[in-house]
Request: fold
Amino acid sequence: MRFLHTADWQLGMTRHFLNGEAQPRYSASRREAVAALGAVAAASGAEFVVVSGDVFEHNQLAPREVSLSLEAMRAIGVPVYLLPGNHDPLDAASVYTSALFTAECPDNVVVLDRAGVYEVRPGLQIVAAPWRSKAPTSDLIGDVLAELPADGTTRVVVGHGGVDILDPDKDKPSLIRLAVVEDALARGAVHYVALGDKHSRTEVGSTGRVWYSGSPEVTNYDDIESDPGHVLLVEIDETDPHRAVRVDSERVGRWRFVTLRREVDTDRDIADLDLNLDLLADKERTVVRLALTGSLTVTDKAALDACLDKYARLFAALTQWERHTEIAVLPADGEFDDLGIGGFAAAAVDELVATARTEGAGADDARAALGLLLRLVDRGSAA
Reply:
């Protein structure tokens, strides 16, 4: 028996740093990653799909987003089981109980809206642990595992949240207790645990039966999400009394959120950065965050600014990571001697250079003014 394990679709997600039309493209790509599960299911012979929480970014979605999301789920073609998570819990404002969702929900979509067992077919069950609020007061998976018998039924647990061995907040009441999960696996009451909440593909423990699938499309930078963009293909051997499990993955995501750390001290360093940015493929689906450190002349800083301006127009977003970016800008000796100006203008430039070399008030403005002057002079020469 095969099925697909996915989670954290967070349909309707926005990212404030995306450029202009990049946000609609990103939203569309998240839905396309969902619809793409249909091809994966068909190629692998998967019977169904489980979505382990956070199907939607939140419960207050625009009607168009709900309708388009449901159409993407319809395109999957096999049964799709949706688990409410912390982003879209089954509270009073739940999207799952809205008139629009209930009216347009495709026949192949089932909301796991109660804790407990769901019959997929004879001999195969899903054990669900949905969120009913953003702050559960107990281990929801532990609650549903407590009295499950080891009776020969194949069971897949679908849950959401942090696991105690991975979460630094050990006192959080909603943490999933891995020991409880592994006890249920060891006694044969359940055979695979499909988790959501962690956006990177992650195996939990050493049984090979407890996994986070990660989000099918990236949601954060690579220092936070090391391995997003996958769906897991899970195979359980129902002829084996121990229900042997095999887990493979398929990449469905197309976006990348990349962090680049570079030292920039010379014009050569800027040229290398330019080359690295140029070599990044699929720029319309790539977000770049730069952490730049170094010391530059005003001329080189102007060249760096021109480089970043160019690529900001090409990438879905190009930003500087302020906490990890520190570039000192100091005018070099003779840097402004050949501008071809004299009189009052030359005196003004000398004054700006002197101010830029200080650490006092106005130094940053003076450096910015000198950089703008160099860029204007370059444009005039080009004309």
The longest helix spans residues 363-382. The chain has two domains: 2-251, 256-382. The first strand starts at residue 2 and ends at 6. Residues 256-382 form one domain.
